[in-house]
């Protein structure tokens, strides 16, 4: 009984934003969903060794998008960005793993696909910055904010990945 209590206690208090428990928010934008790239994007993150802890197909509201892109509100393209993101469903995901924020950003490529290397998601699938397929958090702090905007706590899963011993030293 004590062993079960200690296991449960350590499970509840496990660190949520450091080491292998670091989380990031990734969203396949409407153009990526329409082009049927969701499976390929999920495959890349799984093959890298990251753990999927949240996933949903959703039609984002204007209020959610305005909050998500709050820091871009003064940019001339803000209205077009909101319209574009409302134009179709978005696949919102939360991925977990060691340095997942930094690594995911490298996997995505540069915001402008013309600056993205082949082998990155944007380098392989994008031509124009206004249709760049995917969003990824740019810091742990923004990941925390974005995850809380797009997911309720009960929508995120804590589960043991049996491959961890094969991915982490």
TrEMBL record:
Enzyme class, spelled out: transferase
PROSITE patterns noted in UniProt: NDPK, NDPK_LIKE
Stretches assigned to the Nucleoside diphosphate kinase-like domain: 21-158
Record-linked Pfam families: NDK (PF00334)
Active site: 135
CDD domains noted in UniProt: NDPk_I
Alphabetized SUPFAM superfamilies for the sequence: Nucleoside diphosphate kinase, NDK
Cofactors: Mg(2+)
UniProt-annotated location(s): Cell projection, Lamellipodium; Cell projection, Ruffle; Cytoplasm; Nucleus
CC per GO annotation: cytoplasm; lamellipodium; nucleus; ruffle
Domain of life assignment: Eukaryota
Sequence positions that bind ATP: 29, 77, 105, 111, 122, 132
Principal subcellular localization: other
Cleavable signal peptide: 1-18
EC numbers: 2.7.4.6
InterPro entries: NDK-like_dom, NDK-like_dom_sf, Nucleoside_diP_kinase, Nucleoside_diP_kinase_AS
Key words of the record: ATP-binding, Cell cycle, Cell projection, Cytoplasm, Kinase, Magnesium, Metal-binding, Nucleotide-binding, Nucleus, Signal, Transferase
A GO molecular-function descriptor: ATP binding
One of the GO BP terms on file: GTP biosynthetic process
Catalytic activity as recorded in UniProt: a ribonucleoside 5'-diphosphate + ATP = a ribonucleoside 5'-triphosphate + ADP; a 2'-deoxyribonucleoside 5'-diphosphate + ATP = a 2'-deoxyribonucleoside 5'-triphosphate + ADP
HAMAP family: NDP_kinase
Family membership: Belongs to the NDK family.
Function: Major role in the synthesis of nucleoside triphosphates other than ATP.
Xref: PANTHER family: NUCLEOSIDE DIPHOSPHATE KINASE
UniProt-recorded name of the protein: Nucleoside diphosphate kinase
Species per Swiss-Prot/TrEMBL record: Scomber scombrus (Atlantic mackerel)
């Amino acid at each position: 009984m004590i062993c079960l209590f200690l296991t449960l206690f350590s499970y509840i208090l496990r660190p949520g934003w450091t080491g292998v428990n670091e989380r990031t928010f990734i969203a396949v934008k409407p153009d990526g969903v329409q082009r049927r790239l969701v499976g390929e994007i999920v495959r890349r993150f799984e093959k890298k060794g990251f753990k999927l802890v949240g996933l949903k197909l959703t039609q984002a509201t204007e209020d959610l998008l305005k909050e998500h892109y709050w820091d871009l509100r003064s940019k001339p393209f803000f209205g077009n960005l909101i319209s574009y993101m409302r134009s179709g469903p978005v696949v919102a995901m939360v991925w977990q793993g060691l340095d997942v924020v930094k690594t995911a950003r490298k996997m995505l490529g540069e915001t402008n696909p013309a600056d993205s290397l082949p082998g990155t998601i944007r380098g392989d699938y994008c031509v124009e910055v206004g249709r760049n397929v995917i969003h990824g958090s740019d810091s742990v702090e923004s990941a925390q904010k974005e995850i809380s905007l797009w997911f309720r706590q009960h929508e995120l899963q804590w589960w043991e990945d049996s491959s961890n011993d094969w991915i982490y030293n």
